[in-house]
């Protein structure tokens, strides 16, 4: 008998799942809360559009490199003019050794930058492709708020019953996931981590050589505090932006294919692994973000120069580096009033050491924005029920477009898709 499968959310993971199972005879119903395919709230694949092929980043599961590359090509094939920026991080031994020597752990990856603008058409083209397949049915403006596991099937909050439900709601679907795990706590395998830190902005010329060589330089560093610190999401000639969650605002960055600034920005994040009896890393991170917002004013983030960040002083003006973030979205303040000392010290230690490898990184007039936070979803167990599966970022197993897509693809394979 034909299996009836519900996929909740139409994001990167759902794309992987549907692509792999589209010819398997399943009857697939996709429930997406956004109004339509053009809606700005739909799928994180619109976010920034750097596709990585790497063993060392993107998630906590192992994804075969050939599958990663195959999925990159899949996305590129859906762009209109197949024009992407490409590069390699730390495949050049000279750079690898230069960082390694000073205590950094360089992360190797190949990447393909599709760009925020082109990603919109990719999502639209993929949707048009799936829509033509007769066993795939899209239901927009359908936010699923609950699921109920029955003996041999599963019911959605809209009353419909399916053989299997695949939850691919990303981070924006945390409300649904929280509801499911409070009903079925046996699904949780791990919840202990949060990444807290800043977004750093400096003139392009300081990191020009690195940007040219690898575009995205990803490194980890064990700081003197014991915390692991890492760079994340490097944006050459990019822009700093804010990101609004339900009840707080954080900072982020992006790069566009056409419009370019004269600054580079990247995140510097310290990973906190909290231990028993504490088990609410999201709560902890949110409180710190809210404290920063309290100082900055509603919906705003804090900004100061690096020397003031280091010496705990409020900045009053700029010298040579000017912020790319819209001036209505930040306040000149002191991040030291919001962040715990151990995080601040870890970040300063990281920047001072990076300055030895890349001179100018610790210039006093470089810019520091906060809060930047990366939450890890609870790591969920896909072997708990035979009718309920989690794919992509909401499963805690992935943190990138390619890993999320691959996760969906592999779960489809596990369910018998050919
Ligand atoms: C600012 C930003 C920049 C990023 N840049 C990059 C990058 O350059 N490269 C990279 O690899 N990754 C990047 N990421 C991460 C990447 O976007 C995610 O890892 C990826 O999109 C995860 O895919 P997913 O399918 O799990 O979730 P998503 O792609 O987020 O899709 C989830 C979908 O579920 C829908 N949904 C949520 N709740 C419900 C519900 N209750 N009912 C129905 N539908 C629901 C949402 O509307 C959404 O369409 C970035 C993320 C952000 C926030």
Structural write-up:
The protein has 418 residues and is of the alpha+beta class. The protein folds into two domains: 4-79 and 114-189 and 378-414, FAD/NAD(P)-binding domain (3-Layer(bba) Sandwich), CATH 3.50.50; 193-375, no CATH class. It contains ten helices and 23 strands. The longest helix is centred in the C-terminal third of the chain and has 17 residues, at 341-357. It starts with a strand and ends with a helix. Flavin-adenine dinucleotide binds at residues 8-14, 31-34, 41-45, 47-50, 52, 143-144, 168-170, 172-173, 176, 243, 252, 392-394, 399-402, 404.
What are its keywords?
418 residues; alpha+beta; FAD/NAD(P)-binding domain; eight-stranded mixed beta sheet; five-stranded parallel beta sheet; 10 helices; 23 strands; globular; binds flavin-adenine dinucleotide
In short:
This protein is an alpha+beta fold and 418 residues long. The protein is built from ten helices and 23 strands.
- Secondary-structure class: alpha+beta
Say which CATH homologous superfamily of the largest domain is assigned: FAD/NAD(P)-binding domain
Could you tell me the strand content as a percent range?
Answer: 25-35%
Tally of individual helices? 10
Any guess at the CATH architecture of the largest domain? 3-Layer(bba) Sandwich
End-to-end distance, in Å? 16 Å
Helix content: 25-40%
What's the overall average pLDDT, rounded? 93
Inertia-based shape: globular
Uncertain spans, ≥5 residues at pLDDT below 50? none
Please write the CATH class name of the largest domain. Alpha Beta
How many structurally independent domains?
2
Largest sheet: 8 strands, mixed
| CATH fold-level label of the largest domain | FAD/NAD(P)-binding domain
């Amino acid at each position: 008998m034909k299996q009836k499968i519900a996929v909740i959310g139409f994001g990167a993971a759902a794309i992987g799942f549907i692509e792999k199972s589209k010819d398997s005879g399943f009857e697939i119903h996709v429930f997406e809360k956004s109004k339509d395919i053009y809606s700005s709230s739909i799928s994180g694949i619109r976010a920034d559009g750097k596709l990585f092929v790497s063993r060392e980043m993107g998630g906590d599961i192992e994804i075969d490199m050939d599958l990663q590359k195959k999925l990159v090509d899949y996305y590129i094939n859906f762009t209109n003019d197949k024009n992407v920026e490409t590069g390699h991080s730390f495949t050049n031994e000279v750079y690898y050794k230069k960082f390694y020597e000073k205590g950094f752990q360089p992360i190797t990856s190949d990447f393909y930058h599709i760009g925020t603008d082109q990603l919109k058409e990719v999502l639209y083209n993929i949707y048009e492709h799936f829509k033509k397949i007769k066993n795939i049915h899209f239901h927009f403006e359908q936010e699923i708020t609950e699921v109920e596991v029955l003996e041999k099937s599963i019911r959605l909050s809209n009353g419909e019953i399916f053989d299997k439900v695949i939850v691919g709601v990303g981070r924006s679907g945390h409300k649904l996931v929280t509801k499911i795990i409070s009903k079925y706590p046996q699904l949780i395998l791990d919840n202990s981590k949060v990444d807290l830190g800043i977004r750093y902005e400096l003139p392009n010329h300081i990191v020009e050589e690195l940007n040219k060589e690898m575009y995205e330089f990803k490194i980890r560093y064990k700081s003197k505090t014991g915390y692991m610190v890492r760079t994340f999401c490097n944006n050459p000639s990019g822009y700093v932006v804010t990101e609004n969650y339900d009840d707080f605002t954080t900072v982020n960055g992006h790069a566009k294919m056409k419009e370019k600034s004269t600054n580079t920005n990247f995140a510097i994040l310290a990973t906190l692994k909290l231990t028993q009896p504490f088990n609410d890393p999201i709560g902890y991170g949110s409180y710190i973000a809210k404290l920063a917002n309290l100082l900055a004013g509603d919906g705003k983030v804090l900004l100061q120069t690096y020397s003031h960040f280091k010496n705990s002083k409020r900045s009053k003006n700029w010298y040579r580096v000017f912020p790319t973030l819209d001036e209505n979205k930040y306040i000149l303040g002191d991040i030291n009033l919001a962040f715990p000392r151990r995080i601040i010290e870890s970040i300063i230690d990281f920047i001072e050491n990076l300055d030895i490898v890349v001179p100018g990184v610790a210039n006093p007039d470089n810019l520091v924005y906060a809060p930047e936070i990366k939450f890890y979803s609870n790591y969920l167990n896909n072997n708990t029920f035979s009718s309920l599966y989690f794919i992509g970022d909401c499963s805690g197993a992935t943190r990138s477009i390619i890993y999320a897509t691959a996760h969906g693809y592999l779960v489809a394979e596990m369910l018998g898709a050919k």
